[in-house]
Automatic annotation (TrEMBL):
<dbReference type="GO" id="GO:0003677">
    <property type="term" value="F:DNA binding"/>
</dbReference>
<protein>
    <recommendedName>
        <fullName>THAP-type domain-containing protein</fullName>
    </recommendedName>
</protein>
<dbReference type="Pfam" id="PF05485">
    <property type="entry name" value="THAP"/>
</dbReference>
<feature type="domain" description="THAP-type">
    <location>
        <begin position="1"/>
        <end position="80"/>
    </location>
</feature>
<dbReference type="InterPro" id="IPR038441">
    <property type="entry name" value="THAP_Znf_sf"/>
</dbReference>
<dbReference type="GO" id="GO:0008270">
    <property type="term" value="F:zinc ion binding"/>
</dbReference>
<dbReference type="InterPro" id="IPR026521">
    <property type="entry name" value="THAP2"/>
</dbReference>
<keyword id="KW-0863">Zinc-finger</keyword>
<dbReference type="InterPro" id="IPR006612">
    <property type="entry name" value="THAP_Znf"/>
</dbReference>
<keyword id="KW-0479">Metal-binding</keyword>
<keyword id="KW-0862">Zinc</keyword>
<keyword id="KW-0238">DNA-binding</keyword>
């Protein structure tokens, strides 16, 4: 049963899932090298049973004109989930977001004081 060789991907061949599995390019080819670099397993050598599932390819890579979904010649997988790396990015993003939130909150409080202050002077 084919399964996906991509890092962090647990997809298996499952009927009705819409996921298709595709063989690796010929060993020693430049295209295979590209695949391995993209999947960050450039020291790894796929065997003839190794497959990659369709979620790692953009839609333009597929030829769906036939009965079976084929990869267009020269297609390179570009969509991977390198979670450790992504998590680090996410953390940085969250920090930046909370910094913005904090300054927004301070700004709002400052505005409120000013509005209240104005209202107070009006009344007196
Ligand atoms: Zn996969």
């Amino acid at each position: 049963m084919p399964f996906c060789a991509a890092f962090n991907c647990t997809n298996r061949l499952k009927k009705g899932s819409g996921i298709t599995f595709h063989r690796f390019p010929k060993s020693g080819s430049a295209l295979l090298k590209e695949w391995l670099v993209k999947m960050r397993r450039d020291k790894w050598i796929p065997n003839k049973y190794s497959t990659m599932c369709s979620i790692h390819f953009e839609e333009v890579c597929f030829d769906r004109t036939g009965q079976t979904t084929r990869l267009r010649e020269g297609s390179i997988p570009t969509i991977f989930n390198f979670s450790a790396h992504l998590k680090e990015k996410q953390k940085q993003k969250n920090q930046a977001e909370s910094a913005i939130e904090n300054s927004l909150q301070m700004w709002t409080v400052g505005q409120m004081h000013r509005v209240i202050g104005k209202a107070a002077t009006k009344n007196f």
